[in-house]
Q: What sequence folds into this?
């Protein structure tokens, strides 16, 4: 439901009441952030445009004649600042180094992802949000205002005034955006379908996964003409009904008004009577570009954590329900030779030899392994016939506990299996025991690895299995390729420094950690489940069996002590949201 600021509050702020001005800014800031964020699609300039808008509002509020027009006046200023930014972008000279750095879309501010994650969208609401990626930049101003109108935050009159159009022309512009959004919703469904349309898979073989005008035309044309993909148009609910009453995307935890706005607000921001909401979003901080540059150069995660457990999502992940298991084999018998020694034997160089001409010297004790110094790095695959070394037995008091935001859950051999299949899905894992993370790669593109955040205790990468590395040649396919793709359609790629994953990766946790799926769009999914030492050992010790898709033995990574590797892309901090975690191939000590 549309919420209009109290005219008395607007009038008091206009007359110079600092407390009223503070409350008014706190109240309207989320609306401005949503207008600008969606219009600029989460570009790094969002902060700057929001800052400029609020500064103009505060500077010119005393000239507002009619307090009842405050909301439309506010949105009009925001649209003016968006247009000014657009004009600057069209006339600016060739970018230099700093311009390139500051012009990169901010991964923390991708507005589609923030909308999905922070409003917990699912089903057709989620499809609408993803479809907005395909709207042309020149139409995003209309999209932004229409979205807020459909959600009940703006009236059609306010929308028309903000666009500076007649009601008739406004209706035409809105209808055009809605038609393109509906076509994009069909594209989103087609790209997510399992199994995929063969013709669509061939068409998108060379696509880099980033929505663009040329690909929008190609994919819309295909989904309109293809008998398979055109079926996805069925059962599309009207967007107005889906968006009605939808909340505004909350401000990022790290968002702060610039010193300029802070100074204009004066003592209202710092007085003891300021509201907590206003203080959180009007605290002094760096301006937008300076803040973005600092984040790029320092890569510091934000420090406040968001809330966790969410009920099961929709059925989008139903295609990833079954974890295919290797043929059953008798459990491997554990012998003393397969267990690690409690204390590593000292090397010959470290052992002293008694000398008759010198006082006896005690042998130095071997240095104890230090946790976190050994990290995963790109490695070569062992020979396909090389059996794994002994898998150390670590204590497991009970099956690990998992909870969070995910696409679906299914019973598994060692506990509930959770499917993470959209950016923002996450699982908080607690306890002492083994964890399976199984990779599924339904489409092609660059793989942005998942991140492990908020670690307390210790986390180790203990083994790799599933009968294959994902870059192994896939058996029985008509087009020679690997589980990462093939020559005809393209290959999934890893980020620099990324270690090639196996089908099944196994970890051991003693404490608590949260695993986030950070991939933008649906490029891969993860099946996550508690495991046991016996299940891990059984998996990695299966002999190659091409008929069953098993092309190699597994690999033991665990050394049985703190020298065992930790996962890549792991931070010990508790970030405000998963998108603020820098993906670096080293353990962060921050």
A:
């Amino acid at each position: 439901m549309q919420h209009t600021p109290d005219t008395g509050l607007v009038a008091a702020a206009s007359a110079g009441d600092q407390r009223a001005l503070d409350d008014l800014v706190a109240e309207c800031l989320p609306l401005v952030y949503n207008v600008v964020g969606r219009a600029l699609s989460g570009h790094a300039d969002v902060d700057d445009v929001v800052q400029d808008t609020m500064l103009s509002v505060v500077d010119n509020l005393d000239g507002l004649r009619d307090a009842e027009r405050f909301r439309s006046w506010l949105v009009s200023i925001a649209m003016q600042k968006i247009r000014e930014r657009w004009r600057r972008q069209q006339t600016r000279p060739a970018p230099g180094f700093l311009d390139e750095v500051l012009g990169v879309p901010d991964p923390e501010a991708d507005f589609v992802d923030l909308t999905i994650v922070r409003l917990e969208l699912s089903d057709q609401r989620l499809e609408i949000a993803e479809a907005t990626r395909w709207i042309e930049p020149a139409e995003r101003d209309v999209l932004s205002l229409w979205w807020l109108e459909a959600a009940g935050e703006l009236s059609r009159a306010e929308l028309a005034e903000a666009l500076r159009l007649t009601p008739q022309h406004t209706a035409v512009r809105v209808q055009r955006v809605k038609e393109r959004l509906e076509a994009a919703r069909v594209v989103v469904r087609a790209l997510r379908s399992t199994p995929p349309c063969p013709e669509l898979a061939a068409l998108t073989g060379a696509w880099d996964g980033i929505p663009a005008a040329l690909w929008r035309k190609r994919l819309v044309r295909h989904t309109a003409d293809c008998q398979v993909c055109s079926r996805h148009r069925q059962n599309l609910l009207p967007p107005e009904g889906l968006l009605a009453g939808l909340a505004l995307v909350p401000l990022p935890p790290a968002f702060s008004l610039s010193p300029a706005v802070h100074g204009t607000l004066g003592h209202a921001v710092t007085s003891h009577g300021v509201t907590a909401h206003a203080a959180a979003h009007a605290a002094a901080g760096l301006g937008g570009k300076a803040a973005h540059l600092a984040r790029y150069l320092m890569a510091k995660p934000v420090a406040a954590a968001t809330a966790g457990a969410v009920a099961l999502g929709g059925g989008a992940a139903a295609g990833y329900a079954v974890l295919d298991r290797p043929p059953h084999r008798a459990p491997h018998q554990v012998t003393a030779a397969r267990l690690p020694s409690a204390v590593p034997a000292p090397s010959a160089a470290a052992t002293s030899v008694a000398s008759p001409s010198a006082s006896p010297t005690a042998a130095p004790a071997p240095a104890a392994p230090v946790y976190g110094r050994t990290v995963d790095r790109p490695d070569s695959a062992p020979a396909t016939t090389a059996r794994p070394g002994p898998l150390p037995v670590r204590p497991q008091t009970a099956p690990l506990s998992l909870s969070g935001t995910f696409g679906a859950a299914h019973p598994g051999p060692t506990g509930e299996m959770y499917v993470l299949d959209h950016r923002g899905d996450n699982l908080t894992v607690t306890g002492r025991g083994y964890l399976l993370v199984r990779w599924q790669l339904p489409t092609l593109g660059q793989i942005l690895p998942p991140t492990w955040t908020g670690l307390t205790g210790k986390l180790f990468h203990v083994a790799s299995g599933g009968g294959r590395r994902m870059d192994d040649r896939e058996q029985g396919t008509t087009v020679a390729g690997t589980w990462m793709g093939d020559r005809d359609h393209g290959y999934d790629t890893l980020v620099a420094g990324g270690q090639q994953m196996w089908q099944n990766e196994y970890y051991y946790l003693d404490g608590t950690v949260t695993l986030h799926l950070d991939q933008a769009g649906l490029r891969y999914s993860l099946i996550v489940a508690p495991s046991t030492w016996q299940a891990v050992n059984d998996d990695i010790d299966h002999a190659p069996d091409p008929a069953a898709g098993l092309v190699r033995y597994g690999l033991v990574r665990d050394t049985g002590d703190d020298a065992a590797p930790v996962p890549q892309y792991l931070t010990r901090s508790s970030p405000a949201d998963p998108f603020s975690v820098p993906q670096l191939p080293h353990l962060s000590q921050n």
Remarks:
- The longest helix spans residues 167-192.
- DSSP finds 18 helices and 13 strands in the chain.
- Confidence is low (pLDDT under 50) at residues 92-109, 266-359, 585-590.
